[in-house]
Write a structure and sequence with these properties.
The chain is mostly beta strands. Helix content is 3%, strand content 47%. The protein has a 22-stranded mixed sheet that branches.
Length: 486
C-alpha cells in the first residue's frame, strides 16, 4: 500500500478567496439532470454535497440521466435510493467528460450505505482525480461506452437518449461502444477504509491510501478507450478488478447475476492500458481476489504493481492478462502470493510479445502452509527478459524475470512453490535476468518448463543444480541454467 501524502498550496494568496468562490458556484452546476427520462433525476445541492433522487425505475433497476456529471474537490455526489434497488444506471448525455475529485456514495433513506451496484457511463471520458472515492455497498463500473444493452434488446444510450422503453428493461448483458470512446484515467489516492468506513492505519500510525475502493468481495471495473492509472490505486479486497481498453464500435458482454464477469470474446480492436508512477491494482484479502486486464499494449512502469495476496484460509483467485504486448519496466511487478493457509492464485498471460526489463517481472510466492500459484505464459512472438537493478551498493541486484518462491531464508515454511510454464517461439534472457523456481522452506520448489523454438542467453549465470525442462517434440530435456531449486 502507498501512504497517503496530501499537499495543498495556493500560489497567489490574493486569488484564493475568489477561486474558492468560483469553485463553490461551479459545484452546483457540475451535476445537471437532463429531461430524457419519464421521471427525470432530481438534484439538490447543500454546501458541497449534491443529493440525487427520483430517476426512472424498472423493477430493481434505477436509471439516472445527466447533461453533466462531475464532483468538485472534496465534494460529494449522494444517490438516495430505495432498499429494493439493486442496480443504478447513470448516463451522461452532454459533451463533457466526468471530472471526479470527491466522493460518490449510494445511501438509503435512513443514511445507511445501499448494497446496490452503481454504473457510470460517459462516452466523453472519465477522470478520477486524487480525492476521488467511492462509498457504495455494491460493485462499481465506469465506462466510456455509448450505451448499456439489456437482454430484451433495450438500449440505455448516452448517444441516442430515449427513456420510454425503460419500463421493459430487465438484465444488462453488455456495453456497446460508439465512435472514439473516451479515455478513463485514475489518479485517486483516497484513504483506505474498512467496510465500516473507518480509516485503515498501519503499524506506524499512518493512514494508507486505497484509491478507488469497493467493499470486501465486490467488483470494480474500468472499461473504455485508453485506460491510464497515473500514481493511482484501485482496491477490491477479496473481490474483482477488471480493466478493459477497446476500440470503437466494439461490444463487451457483462454478467452481474452472481459474480461479475466481463467477456471480450467479440472484441476485435483493443487500445492501450498503462500503469505509471507507483500505481497499484490490489485485490488482496482473506481470499486474494481476481484481476483481469484486456488491452492492446499493456505497460507497467515506475514500480507499479498488480497484486493479489491471499491472507487467510480461502484459495486465491487468478490474475489474467491478454494483450498484444505486455511491458514490465523499472521494478514493476505482477504478483500473487499467500502468507496464509489458502492456495495462492495463478498468473496467466496471453500475449504476442512480453518484455520485462530493469527489474520488472512476474512473481508467485508462499510464505506459509498455502501452495504458491502457478505462472502460465503463452507469447506467440517472443519473450525478452533483460537486466537487473542495484538499489544500494551493499544489496544484491534485483533481476528482471519470472519467479516462483516457497518460503524465506531463516524460516521453515511448508508450502510448495508454484510451477512456471512458458510457451513461445523465441525466449531471450540477458544482462542478469532470471527465471527462477526456488525454496527456502521445507516445501518443494516448483518446476520450470519451457517450450521454445529458440532460447538465447546473454549474461546469465549457469547453475548445475537448476531444474528446468525444455520441451523438444514433447521430450523433456533437463538443462543447468535459468533456475535453481535448493
Amino acid at each position: 500500500m502507498q501512504e497517503l501524502n496530501t499537499v495543498q498550496s495556493c500560489l497567489v494568496i490574493g486569488g484564493c478567496v475568489l477561486w474558492q468562490g468560483l469553485t463553490a458556484s461551479a459545484t452546483q452546476a457540475q451535476i445537471i439532470p437532463d429531461r430524457t427520462l419519464p421521471n427525470p433525476s432530481r438534484v439538490t445541492t447543500t454546501g458541497n454535497t449534491t443529493v440525487i433522487t427520483e430517476g426512472s425505475r424498472s423493477g430493481s433497476n434505477l436509471f439516472h440521466s445527466f447533461r453533466a456529471f462531475s464532483v468538485s474537490n472534496r465534494g460529494t455526489a449522494s444517490f438516495n435510493v430505495a432498499p429494493e434497488i439493486e442496480n443504478i444506471f447513470t448516463r451522461v448525455t452532454g459533451s463533457t467528460r466526468s471530472d471526479i475529485n470527491g466522493a460518490i456514495e449510494v445511501l438509503q433513506a435512513d443514511g445507511t450505505v445501499s448494497p446496490a451496484n452503481l454504473f457510470l457511463l460517459n462516452p466523453n471520458g472519465i477522470l478520477f482525480r486524487e480525492n476521488a472515492s467511492l462509498n457504495i455497498g455494491g460493485s462499481f463500473l465506469a465506462t466510456t461506452a455509448g450505451s448499456f444493452i439489456f437482454s430484451n434488446g433495450t438500449e440505455f444510450s448516452a448517444v441516442n437518449p430515449r427513456g420510454n422503453s425503460l419500463l421493459t428493461v430487465s438484465v444488462p448483458i453488455g456495453l456497446q461502444f460508439g465512435q472514439n470512446p473516451g479515455t478513463i484515467t485514475n489518479r485517486s489516492l483516497a484513504i483506505l477504509v474498512d467496510d465500516a468506513g473507518n480509516p485503515v492505519i498501519d503499524e506506524a500510525g499512518d493512514q494508507l491510501a486505497g484509491g478507488l475502493q469497493v467493499r470486501t468481495g465486490e467488483a470494480i471495473a474500468l472499461v473504455g478507450g485508453r485506460i491510464n492509472v497515473e500514481d493511482g490505486i484501485i482496491t477490491a479486497s477479496s473481490g474483482q478488478i477488471d480493466i478493459g481498453s477497446v476500440g470503437e464500435s466494439e461490444f463487451v458482454s457483462l454478467t452481474i447475476a452472481d459474480d461479475w464477469r466481463l467477456e471480450y470474446n467479440a472484441v476485435q480492436t483493443f487500445q492501450d492500458i498503462q500503469l505509471v508512477q507507483f500505481s497499484i491494482l490490489n485485490t488482496s484479502g482473506d481470499r486474494g481476489g481476481s484481476i483481469q486486464i484486456h488491452g492492446d499494449r499493456v505497460s507497467l512502469t515506475d514500480e507499479s504493481e498488480v497484486l493479489s495476496e491471499t491472507l487467510g484460509n480461502q484459495n486465491g483467485e487468478n490474475i489474467f492478462i491478454q494483450a498484444s504486448q505486455l511491458v514490465l519496466d523499472d521494478l514493476s511487478l505482477i504478483s500473487s502470493s499467500t502468507p496464509g493457509t489458502g492456495q495462492g492464485g495463478n498468473i496467466t498471460i496471453r500475449v504476442d510479445q512480453l518484455i520485462a526489463q530493469a527489474g520488472g517481472g512476474l512473481s508467485t510466492a508462499t510464505s506459509a502452509e498455502g501452495v504458491g500459484g502457478n505462472i502460465d505464459i503463452v507469447a506467440t512472438e517472443f519473450i525478452v527478459l533483460s537486466g537487473a537493478i542495484i538499489l544500494q551498493q551493499d544489496q544484491l541486484p534485483l533481476p528482471s524475470g519470472f519467479f516462483s518462491q516457497a518460503g524465506f531464508p531463516d524460516y521453515r515454511e511448508t508450502g510448495n512453490g508454484g510451477n512456471i510454464t512458458i510457451s513461445t517461439p523465441e525466449l531471450r534472457l540477458e544482462a542478469g535476468a532470471q527465471i527462477s523456481a526456488s525454496t527456502f522452506g521445507t516445501g518443494n520448489a516448483g518446476t520450470v518448463r519451457i517450450q521454445a523454438e529458440r532460447v538465447e542467453l546473454s549474461g546469465v549465470t549457469r547453475n548445475p543444480d537448476g531444474s528446468v525442462f525444455l520441451d523438444d517434440d514433447g521430450l523433456p530435456l533437463p538443462v543447468g541454467f535459468l533456475a535453481t531449486q535448493i
